[in-house]
Design a protein that fits this description.
Chain lengths: 423, 419
């Protein structure tokens, strides 16, 4: 059973006790609205914090300490959650009964706390060589987005569909802004994050590491918290259709449809959308896989996913360029069919069964537990995976049809091989 | 019904091993209290098995991509497909083909026995016709084109083509659009009948399950007689075919894959020593890693792997760099220095601790457990034997491995936007 604690204004901790794992995961997430102005700094922050600290002033020393904690797995990053940015640092260390000479969990927790707070507490700031390193790596990451074509096409569609909204921003920032990053701007972003972000600490394991809540409470007490709850995500219906095309030297085209509805928010509101999305384009039993891929052979992959905070649904597919129009029509025909209620009770039951089965497995994976609750950071009383499964059973065919009917096509993005004219 | 039953234990977990009279291997790792179950039914057959003696004595040479093609087709039957059957139970099912294995899997929380029945059934009942083969050629053609756009995949395929003269590991797993056009239902049956034989297959399961009950079911169900396949592998010289392979693709900065060709089929302890050596010399705690990052020669995605299977082995280093040739030079310098003076003892201890911690953490996850059991099954090694060897491996073992590695036999594959 989840145990929650309030450590400061806007800072909460959740301990999810479980006897199942041989290690303990400690995950710290900072949530704040995505903003264009400091996007690069926010993208760099977790990597800077995890690269060195006053106690471990270079990268190798820091990683050797992790080695001595039996390879405690430190991972950091930035994600988009709707209009919000999540900066996350987490560490996973083996439990003390397996740590032969060095109790790893408590030391790993203190280590992570140090990475987050020590720079502030000691006035260490951000050093020239680490800034130069991370600016280069960020510039390379931004430029390298063209390497993964599926992800590139998804990003391009979202940026076009949500232009002017935080969700339409790149989580890494843009290449032209990287050069503007300075020690001063990084310090501003770092202090702003410590003071004003909504913070969630999640601990998943057998026991709560002794003293860790007190250590984080002390840390946040010292930064001068100034938390004001944020406005929720921008939700709007589909606008005038936007069609965006890009060409590259590629063999397989990508077609991405961005759809919008005004049904958005927490699990209770969006459950039917979640089920509808799976029925439409979830697994190999879904309408898009069975019909658009298998029957009509118009794509290699075709999947749908919903962004519940935004009321957005994205359908992405890998296509032959010549099939682009047919594929788009076939995909929208499947959505229209579901909106008319043209699906069987068994098809609905299949989606609910599949989703339920997956959700029941969340409790067996510490990273999945972490991601599950992180996605619900702004829900005042998030449903547990078990409660979510219970609620899924009550979703009706009528609700699913209404969910489909609520979506309108907003943006079409297509990535095409060079020299392919599209009618 | 069983020829042998053994138990292997590590860190409070156990794997029960069953060997059936027809040669089938079953590994079950019971995980009391876990809701998730994960199962793989696999064969020691992959893209490298392109020449063999069929059960009727014919010598057969098959087109590239057929193992992967067969994997796609096996889901189909005269009455429908296996995905529809799994849809009725709620399981999540998939399959994959690699160089030396093909695996069919499901993950579920509920109705494990039904899902196991489905798995044991469809994998053992192939159904190939000229019509269904033709249909799949279109779908797999699209998959091939998708991979052809992936520089991370292409840089590896090119590397293998540069390292190997003859060994079929140099062939792309999916084949080409042209090669899969040569696949027929007769060829698919020839491959199936040769390699999808209990003597060549394994089942690996982890979750809150009863090992003996599973073994009883498997023993009652998989009753086909065993016949080990006869494979044909060409002779492969110790030298690399070429030292450099280049390709132009739309990438931001060059991707590279450096491969140092190694003696194939090393004993297990030497393979572990190789993995530790890679971590010590090129992992995030290493001197070289920091130098390469500080000198802007590598990015955040730099990684190493000991890549090995039947008749092939190489130490691989991959990443992005503005100057891959400089990275190669620095890597070879670091290897030379380590061959002269041995690895740093503190870094050795750190790497060993890291490997131990990773082994413990992997016991948290049914999918990771099954993945490890599959590796053991393919290599015909004992479950948890890597972990046991790790307890006793020494710096001298790692130094000895490095001394035996011929670092002159290396190939650098580069993808860049210009020649």
């Amino acid at each position: 059973m989840l145990q929650t604690y309030t450590l400061a204004e806007g800072v909460s901790a959740a301990f999810i006790p479980t006897e199942q794992f041989r290690s303990t995961l400690l995950s710290v997430s900072f949530y704040f609205p995505l903003q264009a102005d400091y996007a690069c700094e926010n993208a760099m922050l977790p990597y800077l914090l995890a690269g060195q600290s006053p106690s471990y002033p270079d990268f190798s020393t820091l990683n050797r300490q992790l080695d001595m904690l039996y390879g405690a797995a430190l991972s950091v990053g930035t994600e988009k959650l709707g209009d919000f940015c999540e900066v996350n640092l987490k560490i996973n260390a083996i439990n003390d009964e397996y740590a032969r000479s060095t109790p790893a969990v408590a030391q790993a927790a203190t280590f992570l706390r140090g990475l987050i707070f020590e720079r502030f507490e000691t006035g260490y700031g951000f050093q020239p060589e680490e800034i130069a390193r991370e600016k280069r790596l960020l510039a390379e990451a931004i430029a390298g987005e063209i390497n993964e074509k599926r992800r590139l096409a998804l990003s391009c569609c979202i940026e076009a569909m949500c232009a002017g909204e935080p969700y339409g921003l790149s989580r890494l920032g843009v290449a032209e802004q990287v050069e503007n990053v300075t020690a001063q701007r990084l310090q501003t972003a770092y202090v702003q994050m410590l003071r004003t972000a909504q913070v969630q600490i999640r601990i998943i394991g057998k026991t709560l590491p002794k003293g860790i809540l007190e250590e984080f409470t002390r840390g946040f007490a010292g930064v001068g918290r100034n938390y004001v709850p944020f406005a929720m995500d921008i939700v709007k219906p589909a606008g005038t259709l936007k069609q965006v095309q890009r060409r590259m030297d590629i063999k397989q085209g990508k077609l991405v449809l961005g759809l919008r509805s005004t049904t958005a928010g927490g699990d209770d509101t969006t459950l039917p959308v979640y089920v509808m999305c799976d029925l439409l384009g979830g697994g190999p039993y879904s309408r898009l896989f069975a019909n658009v891929r298998e029957k009509l052979q118009l794509c290699y992959y075709c999947a749908a996913r919903s962004v519940r905070r935004k009321g957005v649904m994205i359908i992405d597919s890998g296509i032959e360029a010549d099939n682009r129009e047919q594929a788009q029509q076939a995909i929208l025909a499947e959505l229209a069919a579901i909106a008319k209620g043209d699906f069987t009770a068994e098809q609905l039951a299949t989606s609910i069964r599949s989703l339920s089965d997956s959700l029941k497995g969340v409790k067996d994976d510490a990273d999945l537990i972490d991601k599950y609750y992180s996605a619900r950071f702004s829900d005042p009383a998030p449903l547990s995976p078990e409660d979510f499964v219970q609620k899924l059973q009550g979703v009706t065919a009528g609700q699913v049809a209404d969910a489909a009917a609520g979506f309108g096509l907003d943006t079409v993005f297509v990535l095409l091989p060079q020299g392919k004219e599209v009618q | 019904m069983f020829k042998a039953q053994k138990e292997h234990t590590y860190a409070g977990d156990r794997v029960v091993e069953y060997r059936f009279e027809n040669g089938l291997t079953l590994y079950v790792c019971p995980k009391p209290g876990f809701g998730s179950k994960y199962a793989i039914y696999g064969t020691r057959y992959g893209s490298i098995d392109n020449a063999f003696t069929a059960p009727d004595g014919r010598e057969v040479q098959v087109p590239p991509g057929i193992a992967h093609f067969l994997e796609h087709k096996l889901f189909e039957s005269e009455d429908g497909d296996a995905f529809s059957r799994y849809a009725a139970t709620g399981a999540s099912a998939n399959a994959y083909t690699s160089f030396d294995r093909t695996c069919y899997l499901f993950a579920c929380s509920d109705r494990f026995q039904e899902n196991l029945d489905i798995l044991l059934d469809f994998v053992r009942h192939p159904y190939f016709t000229a019509q269904t083969v033709q249909k799949e050629q279109g779908i797999i053609g699209q998959e091939i084109r998708m991979y052809e756009d992936s520089p991370k995949w292409v840089v590896l395929v090119n590397l293998l083509q540069g390292v190997y003269h003859n060994h079929p590991v140099r062939i792309d797993i999916t084949g080409t659009v042209e090669s899969i056009a040569q696949i027929t239902d007769e060829l698919l049956y020839a491959c199936y009948n040769t390699f999808y034989n209990p003597a060549n297959m394994f089942i690996c399961i982890a979750g809150d399950v009863d090992p003996d009950a599973i073994a009883q079911k498997v023993g009652r169900t998989v009753t086909e007689p065993g016949l080990a396949p006869v494979r044909s592998m060409p002779a492969e010289p110790k030298t690399v075919r070429t030292g450099d392979v280049r390709r132009v693709m739309p990438v931001a900065q060059p991707l590279f894959c450096l491969g140092i060709k190694d003696t194939p089929n090393r004993p297990q302890k030497e393979r572990l020593a190789a993995e530790l050596a890679a971590e010590i010399l090129f992992g995030k705690s290493s001197v070289l890693y920091k130098q390469l990052v500080d000198q802007a020669l590598i990015g955040g995605d730099f990684g190493t792997e000991y890549f090995a299977g039947n008749g092939f082995a190489a130490l691989l280093l991959e990443g992005e760099s503005k100057d891959p040739q400089a990275v190669r030079a620095r890597v070879l310098e670091a290897l030379s220095a380590a061959r002269q003076s041995g690895v740093d003892p503190q870094l050795f201890e750190g790497a060993r601790r890291r490997a131990y911690g990773s082994a413990i953490r992997s016991l948290n996850d049914v999918e990771a457990i099954v993945s490890a059991l599959v590796d053991y099954a393919v290599a015909e090694e004992v479950p948890f034997s890597d972990e046991e060897l790790l307890e006793n491996i020494t710096k001298a073992d790692v130094d000895a491995y490095l001394a035996s590695l011929d670092i002159t036999q290396n190939c650098l594959s580069v993808i860049s936007k210009h020649e």
